[in-house]
Amino acid sequence: MEKNDFKRFCVVIILTLTLHLITMPVLLYGQKMNVFRISFLIFHNFLAFWVYFFMALVKKKKGFVEYNEQTTELLRKEPNKYCILCDNYKPERAHHCSKCRQCVRKMDHHCMWLGNCVNNDNLGHFIRMLLYAVLSLLVLSVFSIYSIVRRDRFGPPFLFRIILVFVVTIAVLSSLLFLALGFFLIERFIFVLKNLTYLESCNLEAFKENGMHHLIKSPYNLGWWKNLQVQMGKPYFLYMYGEEGDGLFFEKNFECEQWPPRQMVDRWRRYNEIPFLP
Length: 278
Description:
- Its EC number is 2.3.1.225.
- By secondary structure, the chain is mainly alpha-helical.
- It has one domain.
- Helices cover about 55% and strands about 5% of the residues.
- The protein contains eight helices and six strands.
- It has helices spanning about 5-30, 35-60, 70-75, 125-150, 155-195, 200-210, 225-230, 260-270, and strands spanning about 80-85, 90, 95, 100-105, 110, 115-120.
- Helix 4 packs antiparallel against helix 5 (about 155-195).
- The longest helix is centred in the middle third of the chain and has 38 residues, at about 155-195.
- It is elongated, with a radius of gyration of 23 Å.
- It starts with a helix and ends in a 7-residue tail after the last helix.
């Protein structure tokens, strides 16, 4: 965790809390805490965190393998870990992204919505962003359905009908998005508890289908509690900030140079006539 990133995170939290302390009393003064106001406040808080993590993912933490003295020295010691496209050291769990055109440390996948890769440095933020997106959609769906069921009439009839159509549309869209993102979040969180990336999970499925069961055991699985801290940070931050590791070296439960072994992956790709990855 870098000090500048931590300071920036603290400033954002303080500003967010200050904004809420100013606006909430004004919003609630002299009014009943009805369902609408409670839903609005909850949705506003979830949405604020979603926006923060989304912007953090878009603006920084690209996770590229840098060309410096450390990687040059590592390449000299381990010449087999080399990317011909980057002409640089390629650490274990790294992949060359065809979109970013660089090797990405502990690459999970390239996200077109973010415009960069989910990787060693931002995987925790990606899970948090998904979590607050799902929570925001849940609140929005429940409140929209509640409003449709109650049908509190106000204003002219034509205006009420227009608003009702608008609310029904929001309820349908938010419910569908909630289900889609909810299943996606569950899948990704299972990967977190197993300390797996999406690309590694694809390799596992392929090896199972081809009978290579001796490659299924991952050296990076340290137990769900340790895996959670490695991916999401320490519990005293409520898993809201921080990822561990530099993306070059990883703690393992058994020693191996690379997992899955490169020669086994190459043999499987040759057998299935799949192009080789750089």
